[in-house]
Amino acid sequence: MTIVNIRRRLKRAIYQLPIMAPYRAHRAEKLSRRFRDHPLGFRFAGRDGFFRESWEPHERAVIAAALGDTDVFIDVGANEGIYTCIAAAAGVSVCAIEPEAGNLKFLLSNIHANGFAGVEVFPVAMGQATSVRPFYGDGVIASLTPHWHGWRASFSRLVPVTSLDNLFAARWPEQRLFFKVDVEGAEMEVMSGAEALLARSDKPRWLIEVFLQQRDAARSANPQFGALFETMFRHGYACTQIDTGEAVTATDVARWIAAPAVADLGRSNFLFG
After folding, report:
1. Cα–Cα distance for residue pair 214/221, rounded to 1 Å
2. Of 174, 223, 189, 173, the residue nearest 76 (C-alpha)
3. What tens digit of pLDDT does each residue of 67-121 get?
4. Number of neighbouring beta carbons within 10 Å of residue 156
5. C-beta contacts of 255-261 below 8 A and 24+ residues apart
6. Which residues are paired to 12 by β-bridges?
7. Beta-carbon contacts of residue 108 (< 8 Å; ≥ 6 apart)
8. Among residues 50, 77, 226, which one has the least CA distance to residue 145?
9. In 134-177, where does DSSP find H-type helix?
10. Which residue in 243, 264, 265 sits closest to 57, CA to CA?
């Protein structure tokens, strides 16, 4: 292991210590007020990567194309609010869901700084049912999933959990809904709580990030990967791998699971519609 890697691991370990909680909160509060003009036409406080042209080009293209025929954009795992701002700036109604306290500071600041009236914010995690659970880590890779990206069990806080059906199943009949789901390993939990939405005759579209392998030290198989596709296909959805634009079938999913080390998966975002 190189000196650089040792320093990186040590810094990460120190950052997760409970004694660092005041520093983490102060840092988020401070950075959430540093607004810059975003190339996409709004003010934004957030990490540098969100300002780069190379940042998630396929995801941005899919969402930009979808907003023209979307009535409500639901940002599940809104993080600092970049996609919420993109949709709100396009004049689309937005619901933003973000349970992590630091991310929520950025999200609220960005909505307020741009005067995006009418954006609904839900500071809760999405799961299969109502509960209170530990939420691990912070930032873009915070998760309901234990050990995700190496987060320690001690680096967690309790958050309220509810389901997408509880929030939205009875809302906006006959309107065109688009869900962006980025929940770091909890995808199947989220979709298990969305059965009524999936069964709607006016089917919402879903852009879902899901990894073939878990983001733990062993890069073990993600048991939710196959279950997610099975659920979506069972509800009559077709799937597109957004980095290639190619259709994804159940045969493709089975092949990826059987040989994850050589899977021609590319990036891990899929459009279901």
Report:
1. 6
2. 189
3. 999 999 999 999 999 999 999 999 999 999 999 999 999 999 999 999 999 899 9
4. 19
5. 256/212, 256/225, 257/212, 257/221, 257/225, 257/226, 260/212, 260/213, 260/221
6. none
7. 32, 121
8. 77
9. 164-168
10. 243
**Of 85, 188, 183, 97, whose CA–CA distance to 141 is shortest?**
183
Nearest C-alpha neighbor of 86 from the set 46, 33, 30: 46
Cα–Cα distance between 20 and 41 in angstroms, integer? 35
Contacts 24+ apart (CB under 8 A), 131-136: 131/160, 131/161, 132/158, 132/159, 132/160, 132/161, 133/158, 133/159, 133/161, 134/158, 134/159, 135/99, 135/100, 135/159
Q: Buried (b) or exposed (e) across 197-227, using 16+ Cβ within 10 A?
A: bbeeeebbbbbbbbbbbbbbeeeeebebbbe
Per the structure block, which two tokens stand in for 208? 């879902």
Distance CA 15, CA 5 (A): 15
Question: Rounded to two decimals, what is the model's pTM?
Answer: 0.92
Instruction: Read off the pLDDT band of 164 (50, 70, 90).
Output: very high
N-to-C CA span, the chain: 45
Domains of the chain: 3-208+216-224 (3.40.50)
